[in-house]
UniProtKB/TrEMBL annotation:
UniProt cross-references to Pfam families, sorted A to Z: YqeY
Protein name (Swiss-Prot/TrEMBL): GatB/YqeY domain-containing protein
Keywords carried by this UniProt record: Coiled coil
UniProt xrefs under InterPro entries: Asn/Gln_tRNA_amidoTrase-B-like (IPR003789), GatB_Yqey_C_2 (IPR023168), YqeY/Aim41 (IPR019004), YqeY/Aim41_N (IPR042184)
Coiled-coil residues: 49-76
SUPFAM superfamilies: GatB/YqeY motif
Organism: Clostridium gallinarum
Length: 145
């Protein structure tokens, strides 16, 4: 399970005295633990992937802000954290692959512009953790034109 892998890697980083890696993994593991305490159930791989995605999104936003401020230390920190967490996500789909999936869903279901919700409901489970969800809505609108 992904949760155990993250914890094992955090422990290995502690033993290696790699403070930077420990801090990034500790943050993710704390989010997982918070989810488990709040929901009173174990975090599945899907939940862990969503947590890692959320962390990556926050890191990327922070990185953009650091770039605007030209803060070299924060830029380096952000790049390190993004590089460290990205391998925990499943292999990412390309824009072209997602467009093909959307075209197939739209033609199979004979959907039109009014069926946006139905299309989104079908595609989301297929791309969960494998593609930036914020890009899907504009792609659907573009295909339906």
């Amino acid at each position: 399970m992904l949760k155990e892998e993250l914890k094992k890697n955090e422990i290995a980083a502690m033993k290696a005295r790699d403070k930077q890696t420990v801090s990034v993994l500790r943050l993710v593991n704390a989010e997982i633990k918070a989810y488990e305490v709040n929901e009173r159930k174990d975090a599945t791989d899907d939940v862990v992937i969503k947590i890692v995605e959320k962390q990556l999104k926050q890191l990327k936003e922070t990185l953009q802000y650091a770039i605007q401020l030209n803060d070299e230390a924060k830029i380096e920190e952000g790049n390190f954290a993004i590089t460290l967490l990205t391998p925990y996500l499943p292999a990412q789909l390309s824009d072209e692959e997602v467009q093909e999936m959307l075209k197939e869903i739209i033609t199979k279901g004979n959907y039109g512009p009014a069926d946006m919700g139905k299309i989104m409901k079908e595609i989301m489970p297929m791309v969960n953790g494998k593609f930036d969800r914020s890009k899907i809505n504009p792609m659907v609108k573009d295909i339906l034109k």
